[in-house]
Each structure stands twice: as C-alpha cells, then as structure tokens.
Amino acid sequence: MTLIQAIILGVFQGIAEFLPISSSGHLVILQHFFGIKEGNLFFTEMLHFGTLISIVIVYFNDIIKIIVEFFRMLLNGIKNKKFKITNGYQKLGLFIIVGSIPTAIIGLLFEDFFEKLYSSSLIPIGIAFLMTGTLLWIANNKSYENKNVKNMSFLDSIIIGIFQGIAIIPGISRSGSTIVAGLFRGLNRALATEFSFLLALPATFGAGLLGIIQVVKTGSEVAFTIPLLVGVILSAIVGVLAIKILINTLKKDKLHYFSYYLWIVGIITIISSFFYNV
Q1: Band of residue 178 on the pLDDT scale cut at 50, 70, 90
Q2: pLDDT digits (tens, 9 = 90+) for 200-221
Q3: pLDDT at position 265
Q4: Are 183 and 192 in contact (CB under 8 A)?
Q5: What ranges do the domains of the chain cover?
Q6: Backbone angles phi, psi at 147, to 5 degrees
C-alpha cells in the first residue's frame, strides 16, 4: 500500500461512507473499471474505524450525554427495582440498542449471500443505485410528520435498524437508507440524520471488530504503517466534512441532488456492464 493509494482510499472512504451514495457500490465500480483496490483487509477495517471517529467528533456531546444518562437510568432502575425513562438521551440510548438488533441479525445471516450475488455482475449494483436515488427523491419531496425524540417509538428504531441492515447490499447507501427510513416514519430531519449516524456507531464498531478478528484468523498482514495512519486520519477528517455537508443539504431540502448523481451512476453502471461484460 503506497502513500498515494492510502490518500485516495482515505478520502474516498470519508466521502462515500456518509454521503448517501453507497461506499460499497462505488468501491466495486472502482475495482472493476479502474483497478483500484481497498488494499489488505487490515487497512480496510482501519479505514472504517476512521469514519467511526468522524461520527464521534461531530456528535461528541450527545454521545457522552447518551452514555451517562443511559447508565444513570440503569443504576436508578437497579436501585429502585423499576426502570423508567426520564429524558430524551436515555430514550435515544435504548433506541440505538434496539435498532442495532435487526441490523446485526441481517448482517450476520445475509452478508455472504449478498457478497456472492453482487460479485458476479454490476447490473444489480446499478439497479441498487437507481433504487437509492429514487428513495432519496421521494423522501425529499414528500411531506412528513415532525416527530422529535419524545414522540419516537421503538417501532421507529426497529424499522430504521432493518433499513441499515439492508444497506449491506452494494449500491444501497447506509446513511441514505436510514435517513429515508427515519423520514418515512415521521421523524424531523435533524433527528432522522442524527439517529442515522448514532445508529452507525455500534454497527461500524461491531463490523470492524469482527473484520479484524477475521484478519487475524486468516493470517492476513497486520502492519501499522505511515500510509495506514494517513489513510485513517484522512478518512476521519473528510468524514466530518461529509457529515456536515449532508446535514446542511437536508436542512436546505436538497437531498434530491444526490438522486441525480445516483441515477446517472446507476444508468452508466448498467450500460457499461454489457460492454465490459463484467
């Protein structure tokens, strides 16, 4: 892994992981048409931890409050032998746990299936791009409720978690699908965006941890090099910028801009698959 490759992949990871354009789908395209690879497995997993840092940086205060209030709720529940949610941070903590359950189930049961399905052809990925673009368009142009944390339900978190699990499909954006699911469930735009990224924390950490365990088991190269450090730092910095861009885009009701991009990429991907026979 050269320094230039690490820079390219770090920037790419930071952008595509958070903007609703599907990092996995774009990676497959890069591999097919340009020969750009992720590098060794350890490098790949560490880049994901870089984007994990991005979420922590942007939502640091909320994350600390969620952790503190969640454990306060547990301690009070144990002390009083009755668990009671007293504020929005405690509720968010519970919703993150509940929403992570369907994500984990889908990821563990179907990851190998979807990887095999999409490794043989680019057509399904192109279709997934078109689907993601369409969902973003619908979400941006339809009027919804304006639910806050107080009005959010456990069913909301479960459905959003299911959408996050479905995003293991290359071409389906994780951030896009979870934000769309939140908007469909009537969450206000700020809450839909924040919960999307907070829900990504356990999923990204868990997937990264399992990935590193797999790296160790398979005997793949594990090396902390300068390119690795640069790639992780860049993925974190660019990730912060990407999150802020997405938040600003949602505030301005411009989510459909990503729809145009995904439709173009989806069509090009499908057409190109016939010419390149990949």
Answers
A1: very high
A2: 999 888 877 776 777 667 666 6
A3: 94
A4: yes
A5: 3-276
A6: -70, 140
Q: Please report the beta strands in the chain, taking only residues with DSSP state E, as ranges in sequence order.
A: none
Q: Cα separation of 62 and 268, whole Å? A: 40
Residues 175/196, Cβ–Cβ less than 8 Å: yes
SS3 content of the chain, % helix, strand, coil (to 5): 80, 0, 20
Q: How many CB atoms lie within 10 A of CB 256?
A: 16
247 token code pair: 């938040």
Q: At what angle do helices 174-184 and 123-141 cross, to 10 degrees?
A: 40
Contacts of 178 (CB under 8 A, 6+ apart): 160, 163, 164, 167, 192, 195, 196, 199, 200
Phi, psi of 83 (to 5 degrees): -90, 130
Q: What is the pTM of this model?
A: 0.88
Write down the pLDDT at residue 24: 78
Which candidate, 221, 209, 233, 131, places its Cα nearest to that of 177? 131
Residue 147 pairs with which residues in a beta bridge?
187
Task: State percent of the chain over pLDDT 90.
Answer: 51
Helix axes 189-218, 226-251, angle to 10 degrees: 160
